């Protein structure tokens, strides 16, 4: 008794402060917290109460509506890049089903995707998805700007922001209905993009691996957005920060819904660490690479390969 240590928790950083603008004291304070959290956990929770509760409620309603469509209809979500369209009915992750909205902060794109499922359109659905993605993209931009500032490379902010699009993905994990026995929802991996921001319903399951290998269970919280660091950002920063290794494990009867906003390097853009981050003490870790090609390579690998090794095998210098 008394020897148990409290379970690890992700740091929570408050982004809802008014006046959180570059150059202010508040900004620099949060920037320091972001840097520290990423160095220690490769991940953090952002409290971003700014997104109205009604919109969050509407989001989960919209997901119910979408996932309830027949498989034949959901499958119409096709994309030319791996991981951008419908994923489901996979033997290795039978509980998982997921769909994507390419370039989701542009309303016309969300509407066009919506019409593949509802040819006559579904304005309240598209409006909910677009509005949610757009508001979360503000958080993504703040985080990325803070990170570039922390490494003294703020002069690259515009080019960096202009080099990415936003993929919005919606996910459903069926409850395994196996009592207290846990089943895999999504296999452990690092995301291959820049930054991923996740939001989830009240059914837990997301786990983040800490630096010492311990899994941290992320407790769903209405105001919290989970900010994860991807392989492409790790390469861009020449290894200064590390990607978030994460997974989903499911128990119980209820379905888990989650959504992710992924900042993704644009097709044709070569990810290359800025000169300022390469020197004798920090030799270049990765040759310049194009994200879509890297994704193709990654998804061509066998399931048994460790997701974390793909970047190094693909373009390690
Ligand atoms: O559903 C989640 O919380 C995680 C989803 C995820 O890791 C992904 O889509 O890459
Ligand atoms: Fe992920």
From TrEMBL:
Keywords: Dioxygenase, Iron, Metal-binding, Oxidoreductase
Keyword Iron: yes
Any one Pfam family match given in the protein's UniProt record, by short name: DIOX_N
GO molecular function annotations of the record: dioxygenase activity; metal ion binding
Top-level taxon in the UniProt lineage: Eukaryota
Domain Fe2OG dioxygenase per the UniProt entry, residue ranges: 163-265
UniProt entry tagged with the keyword Metal-binding: yes
PROSITE patterns per UniProt: FE2OG_OXY
Family: Belongs to the iron/ascorbate-dependent oxidoreductase family.
Cited function: Probable 2-oxoglutarate-dependent dioxygenase that may be involved in glucosinolates biosynthesis. May play a role in the production of aliphatic glucosinolates.
Protein name as catalogued: Oxoglutarate/iron-dependent dioxygenase
Phylogenetic classification of the source organism: Eukaryota, Viridiplantae, Streptophyta, Embryophyta, Tracheophyta
């Amino acid at each position: 008794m008394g020897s148990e240590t409290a379970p690890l928790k992700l740091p929570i950083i408050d982004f809802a402060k008014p006046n959180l603008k570059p150059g202010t004291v508040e900004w620099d304070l949060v920037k320091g917290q972001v840097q520290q959290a990423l160095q220690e956990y490769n991940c953090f929770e952002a409290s971003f109460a700014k997104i109205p509760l009604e919109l969050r409620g509407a989001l989960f309603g919209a997901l119910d509506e979408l996932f309830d469509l027949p498989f034949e209809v959901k499958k119409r979500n096709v994309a030319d890049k791996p991981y951008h369209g419908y994923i489901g009915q996979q033997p290795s992750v039978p509980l998982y089903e997921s769909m994507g909205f390419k370039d989701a902060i542009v309303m016309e794109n969300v509407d066009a995707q919506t019409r593949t499922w509802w040819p006559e359109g579904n304005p309240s659905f598209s409006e909910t998805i677009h509005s949610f993605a757009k508001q979360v993209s503000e958080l993504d931009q703040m985080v990325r700007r803070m990170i570039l500032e922390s490494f003294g490379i703020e002069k690259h902010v515009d080019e960096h922001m202009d080099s990415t699009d936003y993929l919005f993905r919606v996910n459903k994990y069926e409850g395994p209905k196996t009592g207290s026995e846990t089943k895999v929802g999504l296999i452990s991996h690092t995301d291959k993009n820049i930054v991923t921001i996740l939001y989830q319903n009240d059914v837990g399951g997301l786990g983040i691996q800490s630096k010492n290998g311990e899994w941290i269970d992320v407790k769903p919280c209405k105001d919290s957005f989970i900010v994860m660091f991807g392989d492409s950002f790790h390469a861009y920063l020449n290894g200064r920060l590390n990607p978030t290794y994460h997974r989903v494990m499911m128990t119980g009867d209820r379905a888990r819904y989650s959504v992710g906003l992924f900042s993704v390097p644009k097709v044709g853009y070569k990810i290359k660490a800025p000169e300022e981050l390469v020197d004798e003490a920090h030799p270049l870790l990765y040759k310049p690479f194009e994200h879509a090609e890297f994704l193709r390579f990654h998804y061509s690998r066998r399931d048994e390969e460790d997701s974390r090794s793909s970047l190094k095998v693909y373009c390690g210098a």
